[in-house]
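User: Please fill in residues for this 220-position structure.
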């Protein structure tokens, strides 16, 4: 099986999770972080799902799944250990042209989930197309060591620089050279070290205008 890699914009899109256990809870929380409007259908639910529902962050229907639950959904996750229920969800999803994924039977759905390294806005996805989940997990651990937590604030700062450049109407073709100067100047290492003074000095040397990290982040 050869998959087509893609990142989905889930903001305000409706997503259904069938199953309220640990797996369903992880799916729901990942969808919420991506900005999806999440509905969970399950007679029972984990404490996390109950809490999220009580806070109004997702909708939980404490009952068995029915076909009408797929109405207006963009995608559905089957997070149960019931093969017969998975077959029903698959048939309903195909009839309604809804993307589906099944935790227990990945080959049954239209998409699979890669192993992910997440550092703020940095998402690194690893997939072996189902050939070896063990290899994907090993690669994820290696990449987690390679890409540390400093990438989250580093990308926030780079995003703030980009927003500043766009606002100043700098020529887009000039952006790459400026970003490369920041990267080659060791900005990532300075962020990791928390060296605010040298970060500000590098920003000023590349961007001018007496810029510093505080001004950029406040504008972002």
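Assistant: Residues filled in for all 220 positions:
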């Amino acid at each position: 099986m050869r998959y087509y890699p893609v990142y989905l914009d889930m903001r305000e899109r409706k997503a259904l999770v069938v199953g309220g256990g640990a797996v369903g809870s992880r799916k729901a929380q990942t969808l919420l972080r991506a900005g999806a409007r999440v509905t969970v259908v399950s007679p029972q639910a984990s404490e996390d799902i109950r809490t999220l529902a009580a806070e109004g962050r997702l909708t939980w229907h404490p009952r068995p799944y029915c076909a009408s639950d797929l109405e207006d959904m963009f995608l559905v996750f089957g997070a149960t250990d019931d093969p017969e229920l998975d077959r029903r969800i698959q048939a309903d999803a195909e009839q309604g042209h809804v993307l589906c994924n099944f935790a227990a039977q990945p080959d049954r759905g239209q998409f699979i989930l890669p192993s992910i390294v997440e550092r703020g806005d940095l998402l690194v996805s690893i997939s072996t197309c189902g050939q070896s989940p063990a290899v994907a997990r090993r690669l994820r651990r290696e990449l987690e060591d390679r890409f540390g937590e400093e990438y989250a604030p580093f990308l926030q700062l780079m995003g703030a620089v980009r927003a500043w450049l766009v606002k100043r109407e700098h020529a887009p073709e000039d952006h790459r050279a400026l970003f490369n100067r920041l990267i080659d100047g060791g900005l990532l290492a300075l962020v990791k070290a928390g060296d605010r003074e040298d970060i500000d000095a590098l920003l000023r040397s590349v961007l001018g205008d007496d810029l510093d990290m505080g001004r950029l982040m406040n504008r972002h």
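For context: The mean pLDDT is 93.
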